[in-house]
């Protein structure tokens, strides 16, 4: 998984609670991405980062926020989880903007 | 709305044959094209990328790009049972400005029959 870890790997939470997912890389890649994968929709971009403290929204950013205070860490926060946010979340990294991306192992999140 | 279309399958291919996977994309400004393999319950794994028209070969895999037809394909020669997986086509529109990230198709489920 190209030196990428995600934590937690599995999480069950209740509607309305805050949740933070962590992506950690040891490759020193500048660009980091959060995607969600759902049956019938495929992988969709939530947010991305093009440097420390530099982030931007993707296709499905509503209900999510991100932060990147260090090159190696990219956090995804669900401020108030909803059942529609039940999904598998993947982090990806790249050292070339617009280039090939490498994915972490994923986090399976269930919101009850 | 940028779209990447793939036949969902399943595509069933005998062991040892050539598997041909196809993908079309809607945005003519697309610059870079990727094929990922995803086993059930696992993360996507990059297997090929192509940036220019024509063919690109890597071992048993060949990626083909035709920007005029907005078409990209993946050929897998001498298919093995271990090639059974879902194959995701992805496209990047980034070319020095604008939005980042990849747009993915929903994937083609490939089954290699022993």
Report on this structure:
The complex is a heterodimer of chains A (112) and B (114). Chain A contains no helices and eleven strands. In chain A, the strands form two sheets. In chain A, strands 2, 4, 5, 6, 9, 10 and 11 form a seven-stranded mixed beta sheet that branches. In chain A, strands 1-3-8-7 form a four-stranded antiparallel beta sheet, with no helix packed on it. The mean pLDDT of chain A is 95. Helix content of chain A is 0%, strand content 58%. Chain B contains no helices and eleven strands. In chain B, strands 2, 4, 5, 9, 10 and 11 form a six-stranded mixed beta sheet that branches. Chain B has a five-stranded antiparallel beta sheet with strand order 1-3-8-7-6, with no helix packed on it. Classes of the chains: A mainly beta (112), B mainly beta (114). The interface between A and B is medium-sized, with 26 and 25 residues.
| Spatial shape of chain A | globular
Report on the biggest sheet of chain A.
7 strands, mixed
Count all strands of chain A and give the number: 11
**Could you give the distance between the termini of chain A?**
29 Å
Average pLDDT confidence of chain B is 94
Radius of gyration of chain B over alpha carbons? 14 Å
Rounded average pLDDT of chain A: 95
Could you spell the SSE succession of chain B in H and E letters?
EEEEEEEEEEE
Based on CA inertia axes, which overall geometry of chain B fits?
globular
Given the helix and strand composition of chain B, which structural class is it?
mainly beta
The residue fraction in helices of chain A comes out at: under 10%
